[in-house]
Amino acid sequence: MAYNKLQTMRDNIEAIRLAFRLGVAGCGAQTAEEIAVLRKYAGFGGLKCILNDANDLEDAAKWSKSDIELFAPTVELRRIIHDYSKDDKEFARYMDSLKASVLTAFYTDNRIVDAISDALKYSGVEVKSFLEPSAGQGAFIDSFLRNDKYPGAEVLAYEKDLLTGKILSALHPSILTRIEGFEKIERDFNGYFDVAASNVPFGDFAVADPAYAVSKDVAYRQATKTIHNYFFLKALDQVREGGLVAFIASQGVMNAGSPFVRMELVKRADLVAALRLPNNTFSDNAGTDAGSDLIILQKHTGKKALSADEEFFIQSVVDRGTKVPGNKFFQAFPQNVICTDAKVGTDQFGKPAIIYKHEGGVDGIAHDLRTALDESLRLRLNLELYNSNGIKPPTPDPVKPTPTPKVEQDVKPEPPKKKPLAEKIEQRNEPLLKQYQEMKKKHPDAILLFRVGDFYEIFGKDAVEASEILGITLTRRMNGLDNRIELAGFPHHALDTYLPKLVRAGKRVAICEQLEDPKLKRTSKQKVVETVTPNQSSKTEPIPVEPSKPGPTKEIETDGRPDYSDNPDPRLFAYNLFGELEPIQQKNNRRQQMQKPEEKPKAANPATKAKPIKSSGFRKLTDKELEFYGSLNWDDNPPINGFYEAMMSIAHRQMEEMRLEKESQEAAQAAGIAPGETYIEKTEGDFIPGGRARQPKVTAIPIERDMSPRPFSEDIQFFHKNGSMVVADGMVGFLSDVRKTGATFTPLNLKPEQEKRAILYVTLSETYQQLYNYEAETHEPSEHLREHLNYYYDEFVAKYGNLNEKQNVKFIMMDANGRDALALERGENGQFVKADIFDHPVSFAVDEVTSVDTPMEALTASLNKYGEVNLEYMSSLVDMDEDAMVENLEGHIYYNPLVSNYEIKDRFIAGNVVAKAEAVKAWIDREEERIKDFPGYDGIEPFIAMSQDSLKALEEARPRRIEFDELDFNFGERWIPTGIYSAYMSHLYETDIKIAYSSSMDEYSADTSHKNMKIWEEFCVRGYYRVYDGMSLLKHALHNTVPDIKKSIGKDDDGHDIKVPDNEAIQLANTKIDEIRNGFTDWLEAQSPEFKERLVDLYNNKFNCFVRPQYDGSHQTFPDLNMKILGDRYGISSIYQSQKDCIWMLKQNGGGICDHEVGTGKTLIMCIAAHEMKRLGLAHKPMIIGLKANVAEIAMTYQSAYPNARILFADEKSFKAENRVNFFNQIKNNDYDCVIMSHDQFGKIPQSPEMQQQILQAELDTVEENLEVVKRQGHDVSRGMLKGLIKRKENLTAKIATIQYQMEQNKDAVVDFKQMGIDHIFVDESHQFKNLMFNTRHDRVAGLGNSEGSQRALNLLYAIRTIQERTGKDLGATFLSGTTISNSLTELYLLFKYLRPNELERQEIRCFDAWAAIFAKKTTDFEFNVTNNIVQKERFRYFIKVPELAAFYNEITDYRTAEDVGVDRPHKNEILHNIPPTPAQEDFIQKLMEFAKTGDATILGRAPLSETEEKAKMLIATDYARKMALDMRMIDPEYGDDPNNKASHCARMIAEYYRRYDEQKGTQFVFSDLSTYKPGEWNIYSEIKRKLIEDYGIPAHEIRFIQECKTERSRKAVIQAMNDGDVRVLFGSTSMLGTGVNAQRRCVAIHHCDTPWRPSDLTQRDGRGIRAGNEIAKLYADNKVDVIIYAVEKSLDSYKFNLLHCKATFIDQLKSGALGARTIDEGAMDEKNGMNFSEYMAILSGNTDLLEKAKLEKRIAALESERKAHNKGISDSKFRYQTVTHDIANNEAAIGRMKADVARYEAVVRRDQDGNPLNNLTIDSYNQSDEKKMGIHLQKLAIQTDTHGQYQRIGEVYGFPISIISERTLVDGKESVQNRFVVEGNYKYKFNNGFIAMSDTHAACMNFVNALEKIPGIVAQYEERTAKLKADVPQLEAIISKQWGKEDELKQLKSDLAALDRKITAELAPKHDEKDGEELKQSDAQRVEVKDNQTQTANSKESMVAEPRLYYNSRPVFNGLR
Description:
Elements: H1 5-25, H2 32-39, H3 71-84, H4 88-101, H5 110-122, E1 129-132, H6 139-145, E2 154-158, H7 162-171, E3 176-178, E4 193-199, H8 210-213, H9 218-223, H10 227-238, E5 239-250, H11 252-255, H12 260-268, E6 269-277, H13 283-286, E7 292-299, H14 308-314, E8 316-318, E9 325-327, H15 328-332, E10 341-346, E11 352-357, H16 361-380, H17 383-387, H18 421-426, H19 431-442, E12 446-452, E13 455-459, H20 460-470, E14 475-479, E15 483-491, H21 495-504, E16 508-512, E17 530-533, E18 573-575, E19 581-583, H22 590-595, H23 623-630, H24 642-670, E20 679-682, E21 710-711, E22 725-728, E23 731-736, E24 744-747, H25 752-778, H26 783-800, H27 806-812, H28 818-822, E25 825-828, E26 831-834, H29 855-866, H30 871-877, H31 882-888, E27 893-896, E28 901-904, H32 905-908, E29 911-912, H33 913-930, H34 941-957, H35 978-989, E30 993-998, E31 1003-1008, H36 1013-1018, E32 1021-1022, E33 1027-1028, H37 1030-1039, E34 1046-1051, E35 1057-1061, H38 1063-1085, H39 1089-1102, E36 1106-1107, H40 1123-1130, H41 1137-1149, E37 1152-1156, H42 1162-1175, E38 1182-1186, ...
Parallel strand pairs: 1-2, 1-4, 2-3, 4-5, 12-16, 37-42, 37-45, 38-40, 38-41, 39-40, 41-42, 46-51, 47-49, 47-50, 48-49, 50-51
Antiparallel strand pairs: 5-7, 6-7, 8-9, 10-11, 12-13, 13-15, 14-15, 16-17, 17-20, 18-19, 21-24, 22-23, 23-24, 25-26, 27-28, 29-36, 30-31, 32-33, 34-35, 43-44, 44-52, 53-54, 54-55, 55-56, 56-57
Helix pairs in contact: 1-2, 1-3, 1-7, 3-4, 5-6, 5-16, 10-12, 23-24, 25-26, 29-30, 33-34, 35-38, 37-38, 41-42, 42-43, 46-47, 55-57, 58-59, 65-66, 66-69, 66-70, 67-68
C-alpha cells in the first residue's frame, strides 16, 4: 500500500485528538475503536508541510499545490494542540516537539516487528522485563506482549516526543511510560531488563549524557555524538547478563569508519544477529527509503575472545571505486542481506550507498527476515547464558559459522538466496574497460560511446578513429598494471555536434547510456540503448519498457561534501558540474517491467527526432511521490534536509524528462525524416543490422531552428548567472532571469565554425568551474576533471589560439564568466602559459595533514585547520585516544568550563585572568553546591576536577602582585571605596566627613554635620567675591580641579567689574588642594597592614590582572594563501614571523590593535587576518577601510593573496550618487569574503539611526550631568566651561532631533550599516579616527585635544558599537597603524573607548576624567608659551600605574618596530640644526610678545582685532610665530631675503648632500606644510629651489615639487624618476608626500623646514627614506639616512620640537612595555641621556633657575625610587617574618599537645619482654576478647558501616577513643563507601592511613596501638621543622630593623626644591598687581572696609587666609557680601 499523506495526516490528527481527550479524562484507551484510532498514528516523518505557516487563511497562499490539501488538516492540528495546551509555553513545546519529529519519526511496520518478536519467542527466549527506549506509539510493545506472549512481563517505555508520548500512554496505560529522553533513565535500572528492543533514532544528533561524555573509553565519548550508537551502549548497560538488545538502526552503526563503538559492543556482548534490511522497509509506513540494519546482541561481559563473525562485524570497508561504505560481516555472510535487488546509488544524505530493494514488499521482507533471523538465532543465541539470569557461565569457544556457499538461482527459487553483493562490489578489475570489451564483441563494427557522468568516453581503436574524425584530443590511460588503452571523449551536450560527423564519415555508432554491472542485477546482460547508422534503419522489436519520466539532470546542492547520485554500478561514475560524483544512467530492471504490465508504453516510434533523450539514473518515482517531492522548491517550499533536497531534485528531473519526451513524440508525429538523414534507432538487446530499409518520403519537411527565448532545459548550476554563455539542445546561447529553479535561454544565431568554438569554450569554462568548486568545497584534488580541463584547453588553443589572444578575448568577454576563463592563462616572458590549476589544486593546500607523530603536532594541525582545540580531529591524526591526548598536552591546553571545551594556553591564560579565575571558581562552587546532596554519580565530577586544575593554572599565572609600597595613589580614584576617603578626611579635618560618589554623573559629593576650624580656617581661601572653605576645596581635590577665583581690577564703561583671574588666590587654593591630595598617601602609609592588604587586593584584582601571552603563530599555514602570485607581483617569498604572530593574536582575540611600524607588512596582515576570520567562521563578512591613496593597493594585495576570494571593492563609480544605494544593497545581499573601501567612502555609509540615537543620547546625558554639577558648584567653575557645556548640549540635542526625524521619514528607505551584516572592521591607518568626542572638566589642562571630536570618528564608533552590540563582546574591529597614539593623551583613552567599553565599565571608568583620575597626575609646570615666554601651565605630565596601563593596552595589541621585525632598512640619524634669529626676526619676536600681552594688532602692522578675532588672539599669535620662524616674507613680502634665514641654511645643506652623493645620484626629500608650492606666489619651495639653482648650480630639472603632479600618472612618473636618480630633490607636504610614495631607492637625506605637531607626522615623513629598498644609503652612507630638523632659536620651532619629542617618548615607553619605573614623566626627553623636558626648557630659555630645578627634580626622583625599593624589601621581609613566627607558634602548640598524648599513652601502656606493646582493644558493640573474632568484627565494620561522613565511636584502646568515618568514592565508575579508623587524643591518629588489614585479623586489631606508637615520630618531625624556622628569625629581624640612610638627604632636596619653586613663582608674578591694588583702593573708596583691607593687602599671605579674629568680627559683613 502506497504512502498516503492526506490519510496519514487525518489518522494522526484523530489519534492526537483522542489522546488529549483521554488525558483530560485521566484514563487510557478502553474500547477496540479507541485502540484502533490510536494505533493508526504514524508520526510526521513524511509530512514536512507541518513546518509551513498555517495560522491564518492568508498563509495558504504560501503552500505548494501538492501540499495544499494538507493545509486545512494542519490548521486543525494546530487548533487541537492549542486548545488542549495549558498556556502558550506548553503549546510552543508541543509544536517544537512536533516539528523535530519530522526528521526522526519513521515508524516500523508491525509485520517487521512481529517477525523479530516471533523469532525470539520461537528460539526459547522468555521475557519478564522489557525495555523500549524509543517507543513511538508502541509497535514493539504490542508485538512482544500480544496474545499474552509473555504474561506478567514488566515494561518500561521511553518516548521523547510529547505528542507521541501521550498516544503511547493512552494505548498502554498499564505500563510505565516516561515522556523524556532515554538518557534520563536512572542508574538503578542498570542490569535489570531481559530484553531491550526498538527501532532506535538515528543520525548525528548529540546526546547529553555527562557520564558518557567524560568516559575514559573513546567509544562512550563517540557514542554521545551519534544517537544510534548511544542507544546500543546505553541499552547494554540496562539489560542483565545474558540479556538481549535487539535494535533496528541506521546502517551507520555497521558502516561507520570508526570501529570503537562496534569494538565496545562485542567486548561486552556476543553478536547474535546482524541483518541488513532493504531500503523499502519503511516506504509504506513512513514514506521514506532509508537503509537500516537489525542488530541483536547478547550481553556477556565475561567473554574472553571474539568470534570470527564478531571480528568481521568490527571491520568496515569502503569500495575504492564507488566510495560505498560497507561492513565485512555482510561480505562474509551475504545471505544476511534481505533483498532481491541491489544497485549503487546514494542514501538519503546524498552519500554513496548500495540501495537494496525487495520486490515482495513488507510481507516479503518480513518473511525473509524471519527465515534469516531463525538461522542466526540457531547459530549464535546462547540460551544457557540467557536463562542463567545473570550467573555467568564459562565462555564457550568462539562460534565460527561457515559462510553460506553460493546457490544457483534455479535450485531453490523461493525464497531466493542472496548473492554476496558487497563482496561482488569489492572486486574491481577495470570494469569499465571490461564491459567495453564485452560490448565490442557484440558490436565489432560500431564505435561505442559510453555515457560517463557529463561525458561520452570512447576507448581503444574507437578512440583513435573518433579523434581523427572529430578532431578531439587522444590520450592514454592505464588498463591494469602494465597495459595502456587509448581514450577520447567529449561533453554530453556536444553529442548533437559530434554524432552527425561520425555518421557522415560512414561510421556506425552505438550509444551506451549509464552502464550497469550485470553482477548487481537479475538481468542476464547489459543492453545498448541507441545505435545510429548511416542511411538505413533497423527493425525494432516491441519490448516492454517502463515509460521514461524525464527530468533535468539537476545536481543536488550539498553542504560542501561530495553528493553521490543513484548509480547502479559501483564501478561507473563521473563528476558532475559541482565536482560531485554523479550516477551513470541505466535502463529499468526487466523483472520490474515484466511484473508491471499496466505500465507498458506503446512501441517506440522509429521516427523519433534525431536527438538523444537522457534517461534518469534514479528509480522512477510514483505519481504520489512526484506530487509530493515535485511540490518542493527553493522559493516558498524549500526542502528541510539533504534527503528532501535529493528527492526534490529527482522529482524535478523526472518531470522535465516527461515533458521533453512528450514534446519529442509530438514533433516526431508532426514531421518525418528525409532520406539520407541521420536517425536514431532504439533497440533493446543485441543490435541486429540489416533491418528493413526506411521508405523515403517524396518531400522532406525542413526543420527550422527555433531562435526564440525559451526556458532553459538544463539545471541551474552554481556558476550560472545573467549573461552566462551555455549550450542547450545543441545550440549556443545566453541565460537571463537566472533563479535557483530555472532561467530563460536565448539562442545565438552563429555560423557553424563560430558555434564549434563557442561549444568548445563553454565546455572548457564549465569544466574549470566545476573543478575549482569541487576542490574548494571538498579540499580533495580531482584529477579526472583536471585531465578533462587540459584536454579541452589544449584543443581550444590548437584550433583557435590562446584564450587571451585578441580574436578570442572579445568573444569570451561576452560570457558573464569570461574573466574567470581568461584567468586560466597568465603571461610569462611575453607568452601565455597555463595557470597553476591545470597542474594542481589552487583552492587549498594540497599537503593537508593526515597524520602526525606527536600530540603537539596534532594540536598545531588542529589550530591551523579549526583555530581551536578539536580533540576528535587531533585523535584522528595520532593513534591516541582523547584522554591520552589531553594527558600528553598537559600545560598546553586547559579545560574551560565557561565554554565547555579545551582551550590552548595562549587563549585560556590570557586577558583578565583574575576575572576569568573568579568565573571558573564560581562555576566550580555552583556545580559542587548542586551535587552536594546528590547521593549518586552526577557526571559533572570529572569536569569539576579538570576545572580545578585550570583554576590553579589561572591563579599561578596572575601577574606579580603589586605591593602597597610600589603603588601611587591619586586622591579621587574612582575604584577606591568612598568610605576610605571619608575616613581620611575625617582624620584630616578632625570631624565626621561623609563622601559619596555618583557613577552616572561621575560626581563626588561631600558633607559634614559639624564644620570646625580646620574647615573654616586652616583649609580655607578667601577670594575677592567669596570664601572657599575646606568642604569646597575637598570637592575640587576629589575631582583634581582648581577653583576659578576671580578678582576685580576696576569698572568698565557700564559700571561692571572688570574681572580677571586672581592668580595668587588660585595658587593658594592649589597649594591647599595639593596638601589634601598629597596627605592621602601619607595617611594610607600609616594604616594597618590588614587595611593595606585589602586595598592592594582590590587594586590588583581590578587593574593588575591582565596577562598577554607571547602569541606564537608559527603553526599557521594559511590554506588558501597564494604565495606564488604574491612572489611574482610583490617579491614576497614568505610571511614574517611577526605577521604570523599578529594574525594569530587577532584570531584568538577577535580583533585588536596591530601597532607595527611603517614598512613591516601591515597590509598583508590585514588581508590574511580577514580571510582567516572568514574561513574559520570568526567573522561572516569582514570589511577593510583604508586611505584613499592606498585602498586600491590593499584590494590588489588581497586579490593577489587570495585570487579566488569574493571581494567587493568600492571604486569611485560605486559611490556616485546614482550608484551608491545599489552598492549598499550589494553588500547587504551577498556573502562576500571581504568588502574593501576608503575611509571617505565608509563615512558615507548610513549608520543605524537607533545606534546613533543611543550613543548621542548617552553623550547628552553625560553633558547634562556635568552641567548640573557645574551649576551646583556655582562660581567654582569657569564661565567658559559653563558656556562650552551649554553649547555641546544644544548641538547634541539638535543632532538627536535630526536623527529622530530621519528615522520617522526614511523608514526602510536606505540600507544602513547594521543591515549590511558587517561583523568585523579592519581600520588601516586608524590614527585618522583619533578625534573621538569625550567629556572632561579639565578645560584648562594643556594637551588634551579637541573634546568635540570629528564626525568621521563618530561614524566609526557607531559602526563598532553596532558590531559589539550584536556580539555582546568588546573589540569587533582591528586597528592597524604604526602611530596608534599619534599626538594626545586622550587617544589612549579613546582607543579603549572604541574597542573595550565593557572592560572600562568593569574598571568603573565611564568617562575621561575617571580614567585620568587613576592613571594621570596633573601638575603645574613651567613651559614656553607661543610667544616663547615661560609660564605656569596645568598639564597631565606624570602618568602613574604605567605597567598596568601598558598591560591593558598590550593585551589587545601587537607592537613591533622595524628592528623587531628585522626589516632591512637604514637607520635614522637625526640632526637638530639650530639657526640664530635674524635681526628682523629678533625685532618681530618682541612685537609678537607685546601683541600677546596687549592684543594691540597694530604693533604687527595690521588692523585692530575685531570682536571675533579678540577671542582668537592666541591663535593669531601662534600663526604669526609659525610664519615668522619659517621666513619673514610669510609675514610681509616687503621683508627682503637674508643670507642667514632658514631657506638659506636649508639650501646650503641640500647642496652639501647633493655634492657628497653626486656620483651615486643620491636623492633628498624636503618637507614643509606651512608654505607649499603655488604658481605665481612666493613660497618656501620656490625660494629654496631658486637658491639651489642660482647659488649652487644644481640643474632645475633635477628639482621637483610633488604639487606639480596633477594626475596619478604624473605622480608615478616623478616617483620613478626619483628612484632612477633623474630627480634629485623632491619637495612636498606631509599630506601629499608623507604617504604612498615609494621613492626611497637613492634617498640620503630628509629635510624638515618646519616641525609637524604630531609625532606620527614626523614618522610618516621620515618613512619616505627610512624604509626597505634604500640601496644608496645601505651601500654608500653607512646604512643611515640623515634627518635634518631646522629650528630657529627663540621661536615656535623650539617649542614644537620639544613637544614632539615629549609625546613620542611617552608613547614609545608605553608601547614597548619595557618600563624601568611605574611612573612616566611625559616631560622626559630621553631616559638614556638623562635630559628631561624641563632641562630642554631651561637650555632654550637660558633661565638658570629652571635648570637647577630640573636637576633637583631628577635627583629627588632617583632617591624616591630608591626609597620605594627599600620599603618594598622591608615589606616583603615583614610578611615573611609574620609567617615564620606564626608557623613557629602553631608548631610549638601542636608539639605540646602531641607530647601530652605520648605521656598519657606511656603511663598506661603494657609491653611484652621485647618491649612491644600489648593490645588493650575493647569494642563497644562486641563483648568478646578473642582477638581473631574481634578482628573479623572490625573487618565487618569496615565493610558494612556507613556513618555518612561523621566520626562514630566504636571502642577504645588504653583509654583513647577509637572512631570510624565513612567516605564516598568512585571505583570503576560506580560509587562505593570506604571506612577509615582513627584513635582520638588531642589529635586524630591513623595507622596505614586509617585502613585496617582485611586479610589479617591480628594486624587489624593492632592498627590502633600502632597509631599511638607513631606519635613520637610525628613529634620529632615537627620539632625539626620548628628548629629550622627559628634559625630564620634573627636574620628577618635584622632586615626589618634596617633604616634607609638617605632620608635626611631627600628631605633637604625637597626643601631646596620648594624654595626654588617659590623663587620662580615670585619672578613670574605680574609686576603691576600692587599698582592695580592701589588704583582699586582709590577708585573704589565706597566699598566696605573689609574689602579695602583685603585689596590693600593683596600680596600678604595672611590676607589670603581667613584669620579667626577677622572672620568672627566680620561675619555679618561677609554674609551680606555673599
